[in-house]
Structure formats: structure tokens, C-alpha cells
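lol forgot to send this yesterday, sorry. C-alpha cells for the thing we talked abt
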């Protein structure tokens, strides 16, 4: 398979591919985030934006002043989210022929490095909450990539091990994954890449 395209030019194409691949039929019900769902308005009453501090509707000048200096492209959290989406999109584009996601790859690598680790320990290693980690382990066990047994000395905990099938999957994925990782930071000049990775580790809390 040809290596993924480098640079920001690839991002738009990848996003379109993912949209076409995963889009839902128009009649498929969607579950919206409750935080994104507006409060119901009484029938016949207009929706009015209220200035909580003054108790009155803000003026156009107040609105303009509030957002004048705000640019999403200068917001670190927004940029990190976009970069994360772009990186995962490039991974999925490159590994369409494999039954694995970036988080599952991280889990398999971590189990391989820490055989017999409990699910709680694995969650700490890859920064995933307990429920999400348990769901992922269950899925990987069903696929035959992981095996799970009661941990020695703690009958309430599960120790997780990689199977031969799971290791074989890593053998196929990891050599090609280097191409994806190179493409993700390939838009940066060579002299920036080490500093970029160091800054990411600091922001992620894995390096002081």
C-alpha cells in the first residue's frame, strides 16, 4: 500500500473519505449531546439571548466586543482536537484492511509491554477511564487478540495478556504505522519535530 499523503492537503481528502465511509442514513436516529440540545422554548415566545450580568439583551456592540479578539485557530484545545482528529483519520485511512483502531493499537502495545497487567493498570498506562477500557478489552477478547484471567492474589481484578493472534496483528501493523507517524509530523520542518514531540509530552502530562 502506498504511504499516506503528507501535509495538510491530505486532511481534507481524508475527512471526506471518513465521512463517506461512516456517514449514517438520513433516517437513522442520532443521539445528540444533551449539552448541545437547546432548552425548549414556550410556544409563541421568541428566543432571546440574555446578558446574565445586566439582565438585558446584549447590544450588537457588546457582542462584537466579546468575540472580536477570539479566534478558534489560536485556541490550544481546539487545535489539539483538530490535530487528534487528523491523526486518527490518517491512521484509519492507512489501515482500512486491518481490524484495529489507534486506541486498540495502544492497548495491544501496552499489554505486550506489561503482560499480566490488570485492567485498572492498563487504563492508567493509556489514559483511559475504567468503563471505556473494560469495553475495549472485552472487544479485543472477543476478537481473539487478548486473553483475560483472574489476577493472582486479587480475585476481583483481571490480568490481561496478548494472544498469538494479537501479536501477529502488531507484527503487521507496527512497521506500517511508522509511515503514518512520519506523515503526521511530516508537515513540520525537521528541526521542529523533536521540540514538537517534547511539547506534546509536556502538555499530555507524560513529561515534566
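and heres what i got for the seq, position by position
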Amino acid at each position: 500500500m502506498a504511504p499516506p499523503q503528507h501535509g495538510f492537503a491530505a486532511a481534507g481528502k481524508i475527512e471526506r473519505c471518513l465521512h463517506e465511509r461512516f456517514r449514517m442514513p438520513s433516517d437513522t436516529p442520532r443521539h445528540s449531546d444533551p449539552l448541545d440540545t437547546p432548552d425548549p422554548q414556550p410556544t409563541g415566545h421568541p428566543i432571546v439571548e440574555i446578558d446574565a450580568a445586566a439582565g438585558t439583551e446584549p447590544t450588537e456592540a457588546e457582542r462584537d466586543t466579546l468575540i472580536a479578539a477570539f479566534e478558534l485557530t489560536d485556541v490550544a484545545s481546539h487545535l489539539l482536537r483538530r490535530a487528534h482528529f487528523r491523526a486518527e483519520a490518517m491512521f484509519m485511512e492507512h489501515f482500512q484492511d486491518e481490524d484495529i483502531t489507534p486506541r486498540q493499537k495502544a492497548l495491544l502495545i501496552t499489554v505486550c509491554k506489561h503482560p499480566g497487567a490488570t485492567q485498572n493498570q492498563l487504563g492508567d498506562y493509556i489514559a483511559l477511564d475504567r468503563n471505556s477500557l473494560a469495553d475495549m478489552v472485552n472487544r479485543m477478547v472477543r476478537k481473539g487478540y487478548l486473553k483475560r484471567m483472574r489476577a493472582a492474589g486479587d480475585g476481583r481484578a483481571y490480568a490481561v495478556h496478548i494472544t498469538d493472534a494479537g501479536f501477529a496483528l502488531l507484527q503487521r501493523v507496527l512497521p506500517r504505522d511508522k509511515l503514518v507517524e512520519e506523515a503526521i509530523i511530516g508537515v513540520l520542518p525537521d528541526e521542529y519535530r523533536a521540540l514538537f514531540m517534547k511539547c506534546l509530552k509536556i502538555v499530555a502530562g507524560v513529561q515534566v
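The helical segments are 9-22, 60-68, 76-94, 102-113, 119-126, 130-142, 164-184, 190-204. anyway ping me if u want another try
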